[in-house]
Amino acid sequence: MSKIVTEQKSWFNWLKLALNIRSSVIRSIWRRVVAAMIFAGMINLIYSQGLAVNQPILSSLIPSIVLGLLLVFRTNTAYERYWEGRKLWGVMIHNGRILARNIYFFIPTKTDKDRETKLDYIKLVGTLVWAIKVHVRKEDLETELKNLLTPNQFIELQQIQQRPLRIANWLADYLIRMYEQNLINYRFLIELNQSMDRILEAMIACDRIASTPLPKAYSIHLKHLLLIYCLSVPFTFVEELNWLTVPAVGVITFSLLGIEEIGLEIENPFGNDPNDLPLEKFCYILQSDIAELIEYESQSSFDQIINESSGKV
């Protein structure tokens, strides 16, 4: 019984994905597909008037295997960039969790004010990742970060370009103060700083992906080959398929242009398109983890150990 339910669920999911227009490339390529079908209809109309426009030899003008290899290379290269971007955001979220947890548990506080200050800087870890999202997408600072910062912090960030770096500097200043007050030792200071360094290194790698598109000459040449191939198809099929040439051209054009468009959409995985990485979701995950961490009530014996071992952590 469980096997049948699983198969039904699988088929339902398959059908749901097949009918998902929002994440499909159909909306991006349908005009070009229709244009190719109209062109095929015109060629078929000319052929039906007795003009010998059929040219089967055109099918060998651009070998299908060459075009296929170019498309596969294009898509694979784009997916490698997409997957690298996903791994980089995984690194940021992972190190953000580690940094927030280590600050929460292993930096002791003596007063309520010290605790509030510590919690503010723990929240700043989540804000750092939000700032990286704003940075790689080149979004509006006020919309995304205003509610996560103090008025003075927000004004300061408005005046600079490298906002994630400035937030990391605020965190580093706090950690150095804790070291100078002998609340943490040098080894632990370096360990916390390494977590921040890994977050910033991942951000720099995201910048590299976003600012380095595939060579324009390659993209243009691939488009030229696709155009020539799609326009030559009606001349190849018109004699054998007659008016069926029109839907045949539509299917072929949809397949080829769709593969190319997929590569274009995932080439920069940090945008706002449906197929891009859900950066907001990643930021909310870290923010939620930090909120749960702050709500966590440590056992008194553990707190006592931490407070008694100030400077020996």
Automatic annotation (TrEMBL):
Can you tell me where the transmembrane regions are?
Answer: 29-47, 53-73
Where does it sit, as one GO cellular component term?
plasma membrane
Q: How does it sit in the membrane?
A: Multi-pass membrane protein
Q: Where in the cell is it found?
A: Cell membrane
* Main location as per UniProt: membrane
Q: Name one GO molecular function term.
A: chloride channel activity
InterPro entries (UniProt xref): YneE/VCCN1/2-like (IPR044669)
> One matching Pfam family, short form?
Bestrophin_2
Annotated keywords: Cell membrane, Ion transport, Membrane, Transmembrane, Transmembrane helix, Transport
PANTHER family under this entry?
UPF0187 PROTEIN YNEE, VOLTAGE-DEPENDENT ANION CHANNEL-FORMING PROTEIN YNEE
Family statement = Belongs to the anion channel-forming bestrophin (TC 1.A.46) family.
* UniProt protein name: Bestrophin, RFP-TM, chloride channel family protein
Q: Please tell me the species this chain comes from.
A: Lyngbya aestuarii BL J
